[in-house]
Specification:
About 35% of the residues lie in helices and about 25% in strands. The protein has about 290 residues and is α/β, with parallel strands linked by helices. The protein folds into two domains: about 120 residues, Nucleotidyltransferase, domain 5, CATH 3.30.420; about 150 residues, Nucleotidyltransferase, domain 5. The strands form three sheets. It has a five-stranded mixed β-sheet with strand order 3-2-1-4-7. Strand 9 and strand 10 form a beta hairpin. InterPro entries: ATPase_NBD, ROK, ROK_cs.
């Protein structure tokens, strides 16, 4: 049985042809264009025309998702007009095969539990550190859901009440302290003229760079300690663009965690990288 795993992003649509054990037969990339749904349907149509034996379609998308209806409840301005789209209904009407739609961070977490850094663990939390902050929670091997499709919006948990203004309109959200954008803000405030990548590499011989990384990892440790108190996971997986530089700051993070956690927690960097969303989306169909 072959299924499509679709990872819908703000700039590209990544479609993989996969089997039940996560083997990727072929990957196709398409630009994300407006209108979003038409762009998605066209991309899937081209892949299905090549692979006539596709039995189902799993889709990972940014935003809040009503999984039962396969409808996007809310999505950011990165995907104009995407909010409210009844993705499942439209695609099933077009292709006449089962479709499941899920939040992209949730499917990435599922992929890491099935085949990646959290393989062998039934209870895991994935924290994605990119431009913003998000994640997914796996309990007993399954994605944890809420009635409003908002489980895993960790970036908008308050870390510092009254702190920096967030895009959501509130102040002190975690996203303003542990995201890639927050690192850039810290660098501007410290008048550090270098890239985030150069900052990481300079921390050992540059006192200001070291202080920025120390503050960043302390705030990340605070965030993780709160998540542990709420979810009591076996393992935490760090994903997203910021995690790609973890070799430079994971030691600092673990140092802070020792003083903040209720009990030891295994922290690993995601292994599946940019394929996690696609692999996890495909797995939705095999677990249905």
């Amino acid at each position: 049985m072959k299924v499509l795993g679709v990872d819908l992003g703000g700039t590209k649509i990544k479609i993989g042809v996969l089997d039940e054990i996560g083997n990727i037969e072929k990957i196709y990339l398409y630009p994300t264009k407006e209108p979003i749904y038409e762009s998605l349907e066209k991309a899937i149509d081209e892949v299905v025309a090549i692979h006539s034996n596709i039995a189902a379609i799993g889709i990972g998308t940014p935003g809040f998702v009503d999984r039962e209806k396969g409808k996007v409840i809310f999505s950011s301005e990165n995907l104009p007009g995407w909010s409210g789209t009844e993705v499942k209904k439209k695609l099933e009407s077009k292709f006449h095969i089962p479709v499941i739609v899920e939040n992209d961070a949730n499917v990435a977490a599922l992929a890491e539990v099935k085949f990646g850094a959290a393989k062998g663990y039934d209870n895991a939390l994935m924290l994605t550190l990119g431009t913003g902050v998000g994640g997914g929670v796996i309990v007993d091997g399954k994605i944890l859901y809420g009635p409003n499709g908002a489980v895993g919006e960790f970036g908008h948990m308050i870390l510092y009440p009254g702190g920096h203004l967030c895009n959501c309109g509130r102040r002190g959200c975690q996203e303003q302290y542990v995201s890639g954008r927050s690192l850039e803000r810290r660098m501007r405030e410290a008048n550090v003229d270098m890239t985030p990548s150069a900052l990481m590499q300079a921390k050992k011989h540059n006192q200001i760079a070291g202080a920025i990384i120390d503050d960043f990892t302390y705030d990340l440790a605070l965030s993780i300690s709160s998540l542990q108190a709420a979810f009591d996971m076996d393992i935490l997986i760090l994903g997203g663009g910021v995690s790609h530089s973890a070799e430079y700051w994971l030691g600092d993070l673990n140092k802070h965690l020792k003083n903040l956690l209720f009990h030891p927690l295994k922290v690993e960097v995601a292994k599946l990288k940019n394929d996690a969303g696609m692999i996890g989306a495909a797995q939705l169909m095999f677990m249905a």
